[in-house]
Amino acid sequence: MNRDxxxxxxEWPYEPGQLNVRLIDxxxxxxxxxxxxxLGILQLRMDGRPDGVxxxxxxxxxxxxxxRLDELEHESEEEEAETAEDFTxxxxxxxxxxxxxxxxxxxxxxxxxxxxxDAVVRDTSRNLRVIDLCSRxxxxxxxxxxxxQYRPYILMIRSRALASAALRDNxxxxxxxxxxxxxxxxxxxxxxxxxxGVFEQAGEVQMLRSMRSALVPKLPVSQKSELxxxxxxxxxxxxxxxxxxxxxxxxxxxxEGASPGLRRPSA
Length: 267
Known about the structure:
Helix 3 packs antiparallel against helix 4. The chain has 267 residues and is mostly helical. A three-stranded antiparallel sheet has the order 1-2-3, with helices on one face. It is globular, with a radius of gyration of 22 Å. It has helices spanning 6-11, 61-74, 91-113, 117-137, 141-145, 151-168, 172-192, 198-201, 203-215, 222-236, 240-252, and strands at 20-25, 31-37, 40-45.
């Protein structure tokens, strides 16, 4: 068997500066994703783990650990029985989970280029669960925090995919709501880290705001009155972060009366 890949690579030249992605039919009829890199081709499965491996029979390592946690939480209370509180992730466990998450990262970025937005939402949501799992159960502080730096980016990509899926379905209102929720999640993330000032400068925030600005002309006129009502509801619940987002959105729609009532009550 000739193992030289030159002919295959020459048939699909690498183009710098863009994500080179395509769908192919595998030998068994299964659709596969291929990503052209400068030094070769990366091939991923559409479902399950991108490399097709099933660790200990599970769809992924994350599924395996989540299933074990589920079983521990539902076990009958027996003396000396292990509980969910006893569950931990070793350094090796966390390393393997991070490596697995990289595979899903490659796939959701490829799916974004292919405009398979449902798959992007699936895989980004899945990687957010990996971050949560390590944050809660990792033995070492390093492993608990290692993946947190990627949370804003994943939240942004997920929101983009949700909004793009809504636009595909001719639902601009749902697209704006998806972006609002993404911005709120990012605001909460930076606030919980004690870095509320970073929110305004974050690239992920700028990306979502830019996308929302482009969507504003697509909104129906009736959307303005609905946004005003949501703004008043947010103020009544003292959810000032969401109120600020809705206020900005109304301003983009040319509503000059969006500012009153947004100040926090004095202590």
